[in-house]
Specification:
Layout (H helix, E strand, L loop, with lengths): L3 E5 L7 H8 L3 H6 L1 E6 L1 H11 L4 E5 L11 E6 L15 H19 L5 E4 L4 H6 L7 H9 L5 E6 L2 E5 L9 H4 L2 H17 L6 E5 L14 H15 L3 E6 L1 H9 L5 E4 L2 H12 E4 L4 E5 L2 E5 L5 E4 L18 H24 L2
Parallel strand pairs: 1-2, 1-5, 2-4, 3-4, 5-14, 7-10, 8-9, 8-10
Antiparallel strand pairs: 6-7, 6-13, 11-12, 13-14
Helix pairs in contact: 1-3, 4-6, 8-9
Length: 351
């Protein structure tokens, strides 16, 4: 049976409703999964209008009412948006609160085993905080809800997969937060995530923190005191890990197929190569052409994938309907891949 995916609407004032409408206009999405949108009916209908999608909204209150047929979007309607008060393209408390409520509802379903995975449209950190939820983003919210401490962010663009040791912290704090223990945990969850993506024997590269991986201690000692001991520990457990690999070459090697996953030390070290691989600006059109890439929260007891971009407030609600659904469609595809791999692993364990 096709995996059942809960697709959260994200910030209703952003491009979430529009890119969902565009993604679910593609019959191929229904060929690989059963999509269920968790959101607000009025916002979803506005998204359909902006996207110029000839679809209808099938609002439901319970999962058993869903039909999962192309042409009608099954929507678990939380009814938490007043369309008269919604201002597109700006952070606001109502939209921020609503966006978190979609995620919380989907998470409850995932924890209860009612859905096979969660796919999230973008939310806005400022709007979340205005709405009463003080989280840096989806990742920390989901981890707290699931009661998980050992988690990390994995970004995927094509065959480039990157997991971060640290994410949303000031750059000045990175050397302090990059500890041997945190590196070990990140390598372990990266290995587990690669297995859940169907990679039987993952090859993992660990990036250095300093230029040239400190060049024998000339540019810092974090490689010697933290990264190398962490790699030695996981290699003793049988994991195939290489490093520390100089950060200016490790991503090119991974793109070429030498590694399945790269463990990056901080946010931009990992984000820049992934977005360079997945994003392309079209100067002639004055807009993004390609907007590929998927964000996965790994270490959770359920599958969560997401787009690798923000709410794009500048495009939200524009009647030309220019928001790009590519990243959302890729996030759906990866969620399906992970759900099938998880099912296959469970079947092997029971035989």
């Amino acid at each position: 049976m096709r995996p059942l995916l809960a697709i959260t609407m994200g910030d209703p004032a952003g491009v979430g409703p529009e890119i969902i409408a565009k993604a679910l206009s593609d019959p191929e999405v229904y060929a690989i999964c059963r999509p269920l949108v968790v959101g607000d009916g009025s916002a979803m209908r506005m998204g359909l209008e902006v996207a110029r999608a000839s679809l209808s909204v099938h609002a439901i209150r319970e999962l058993k009412e869903a039909e999962y047929r192309h042409g009608a979007i099954d929507l678990l309607d939380l009814g938490n948006i007043d369309p008269a008060r919604l201002v597109m393209g700006v952070p606001q408390a109502m939209a921020g609160k609503a966006s978190v409520e979609y995620v919380l509802r989907a998470t409850d379903m995932a924890l209860a085993g009612e859905v096979d995975a969660i796919v999230t449209a973008p939310l806005n950190k400022e709007a979340m905080n205005m709405g009463g939820y003080s989280y840096p983003g989806h990742t920390e919210l989901l981890a707290e809800k699931a009661g998980t401490k050992n988690y990390a962010m994995m970004l995927i663009s094509g065959n480039l997969r990157v997991v971060h040791v640290t994410t949303h912290i000031p750059l000045a704090l990175v050397p302090e937060k990059v500890t041997k223990e945190r590196i070990v945990t990140t390598i372990e969850v990266a290995y587990d995530a690669a297995r859940k993506l169907g990679i039987e024997a993952p090859r993992i590269a660990v990036a250095g923190l300093n230029p040239h991986s400190s060049d024998g201690g000339l540019f810092g000692d974090e490689e010697k005191t933290k990264i190398e001991p962490a790699i030695a520990e996981v290699k003793m457990r049988g994991l195939n890990v290489d490093g520390p690999v100089p950060p200016d070459t490790v991503f090119g090697k991974a793109l070429g197929g030498l590694y399945d996953v790269v463990v990056a030390m901080y946010h931009d070290q990992g984000h820049i190569p992934v977005k360079l691989a997945g994003f392309r600006w079209d100067e002639a059109k004055g807009e993004w052409g390609d907007m590929g890439g998927v964000n996965i929260t790994i270490g959770l007891p359920f599958i969560r994938t997401s787009v690798d971009h923000g709410t794009a407030y500048g495009r939200a609600g524009r009647r030309d309907g220019t928001a790009n659904p590519q990243s959302l469609k890729e996030a759906i595809q990866v969620a399906v891949q992970m759900a099938k791999a998880r099912k296959s692993l469970k079947q092997r364990r029971t035989h």
